[in-house]
Amino acid sequence: IGWLVINSTYLYLDLANDSRVVLAAYEELMASPAHEIQRICEFLDLAYQPRMIREVNAEAARRRDPPELPPVLEAACAALWQQLKAAHPTLTA
C-alpha cells in the first residue's frame, strides 16, 4: 500500500514535470547502480565517486514473487504503474 500511496502522490502533485524532482526506481538502481547514481549525482550537481556504490548489493534486489494482493489493490497498482511508465518512458522494471 505504501508504494501505491507514494507513487500516487508523485503523479497527483505532477512531480514528473517538476524540475526539482528526479524519479529513481529501486530496481533500476540495483540493476545498474553506477549509471543510476551518476544520473542522480548529475541531477544534484554532485561529483560521482565510485565509492558511492561500493556497498550496493544487487543480490539483495533479486526478483521475488510479488505478494498476494486483493484484486482491487492489484488492479490499482497495475494502473498506476502504467501511468508512471507513461510519465517516464525509460522505466523498465
Describe the structure.
It is a single chain. The chain has helices spanning 2-12, 26-31, 33-44, 71-87. By secondary structure, it is an all-alpha fold. Helix 1 (2-12) runs parallel beside helix 4 (71-87). The longest helix has 17 residues, at 71-87. It is flat and about 45 Å long.
Write the topology of this structure.
Elements: H1 2-12, H2 26-31, H3 33-44, H4 71-87
| Overall pLDDT score | 87
Range of strand content: under 5%
Radius of gyration: 15 Å
Shape: flat
What distance separates the N and C termini?
18 Å
Q: Which regions contain 5 or more consecutive residues with pLDDT less than 50?
A: none
Helix-strand pattern: HHHH
Write down how many β-strands occur, each being a DSSP E stretch of 2 or more residues: 0
Number of helices: 4
* Helix-strand makeup class: mainly alpha
What keywords describe this structure?
93 residues; 4 helices; mainly alpha; single chain
